[in-house]
C-alpha cells in the first residue's frame, strides 16, 4: 500500500517533469514552507526573510527562557547573573537582527535598487 506522502511526492515529481518537458519556466516550487522561488534573486530574498523570522523567534524564546530562569532563581546571585546574561544576550541578538534588516534594506533597496 502506498502512503499519502509517497503519492504526494510522486505527484510533485510528475508535475515538475511535465513542466520541464513542456519547456515552461518554473518560477516557484510549492512546498509546506510556501512557494520557494527558483530564480537566484528572489530565492536569496526568501531565504533571508525566512532566516530573519527564525532568528527573531529564537530570540523571543530565549527571552522567555531567561525570564523563567530569573523567576526560579530564588535569590541565588549566580542564577540571577545567568538569567540576566541570557536576557541581555537575546536582546542584543534581536537588535543585531533588526540592524541587519535595516542595512540589507538600505543597501539592497535604497542604494542598489534591487
Key structural traits:
single chain; mainly alpha; 2 domains; two-stranded antiparallel sheet; 2 strands; 7% strand; flat
Structural summary, described in words:
This protein has helices at 4-21, 40-71, 77-111, and strands spanning 28-31, 34-37. It is mainly alpha-helical and 114 residues long. The chain folds into two domains: 1-38, no CATH class; 39-114. A two-stranded antiparallel sheet has the order 1-2.
Biggest sheet, spatial arrangement of strands: 1-2
N-to-C order of helices and strands: HEEHH
**Secondary structure: helix percent:** over 70%
Total domains, how many?
Answer: 2
User: Taking Cα atoms only, what radius of gyration do you get, to the nearest Å?
Assistant: 22 Å
Give unreliable regions as ranges: none
Largest sheet: 2 strands, antiparallel
Percent range for β-strand residues: 5-15%
Instruction: Please state the overall shape, judged from the principal axes of the Cα atoms.
Output: flat
Mean pLDDT: 81
* Number of contiguous helices: 3
Structural class: mainly alpha
Q: Give the terminus-to-terminus CA distance.
A: 49 Å
Number of strands: 2
